Amino acid sequence: MTLHHDVDAVVLDIEGTTSATGFVVDVLYPYSRSRFAALLTERGEEPEVARAVAQVREEIGEPDADAAGVEKALNAWLDEDRKATPLKTLQGVIWAEGFARGDLVSHFYDDVVPRLRAWHAAGVDLYVYSSGSVAAQRAWFTNSPEGDLTPLVSGLYDTENAGPKQEPESYRRIASATGVRPERLLFLSDRPGELDAARAAGWHTAGIRRPGEPYYEQGVGDHAAAGTFDEITVSRSTS
């Protein structure tokens, strides 16, 4: 079954939606884990790193935690797959450098990029909302197997500039920032809690269910579901 949506913009989740969660967990997580110590000890004075470290100390209730203590917390959160903003910020710094050096190339499911290009060509604006930091998102879309995809994307949102992904207010914040009315926005995600929050904010939603992804068996609740982007048709009415 094909899902048709008449909207002005599509907002994309990444893990489990455009890209394999396994790639993130099996490739990117170990890459960041092996580099946390060097980042904290060698670049701790940089504003972005220092801000994230302060957030880690606040979250663990240890205002004087040293680099080793901060690294221990980061690794524990990584083991839990916790969507902690300072963890995502520091991963983003590390991954951006890895992509820039050519150590890393991002992953997209085969059906995704052709569909994104078609939607963009049809005048539909594309945005990203991921728990990964904006820096990580930018690196991800810049360094795809099909080249730089950032010209397709009008804006990037994460848990720092938009808020938690399962809270309706985050989606209201994105709608306000993009200037697109909620009823003209479509959110694509594999996580039912995120889809629920987007719908509560007045958005259209479509759940992506890919075999092998963590939320495949759970399903997407009562949201319309698609197995690939090929099953979703998006157009922008000119009226």
Give short descriptive properties of this protein.
single chain; 239 residues; alpha/beta; 6-stranded parallel sheet; two-stranded parallel sheet; 9 helices; 8 strands; 44% helix; 13% strand; globular
**End-to-end gap:** 27 Å
Report helical residue fraction. 40-55%
Return residue spans where pLDDT drops below 50 for at least 5 consecutive residues: none
Query: How many extended strands?
Result: 8
Beta-strand content estimate: 5-15%
Return the structural class.
alpha/beta
* Radius of gyration from CA coordinates: 18 Å
Query: What sequence of helices (H) and strands (E) makes up the elements?
Result: EEHHHHHHEHEHEHEEE
Q: Which strand order do you get reading across the main beta sheet? A: 4-3-2-5-6-7
In DSSP terms, counting alpha (H) and pi (I) runs of 4 or more, how many helices? 9
Give an account of the 3D structure.
The protein is an alpha/beta fold and 239 residues long. The protein contains 9 helices and 8 strands. Strands 4-3-2-5-6-7 form a 6-stranded parallel beta sheet, with helices on both faces. A two-stranded parallel ribbon has the order 1-8.
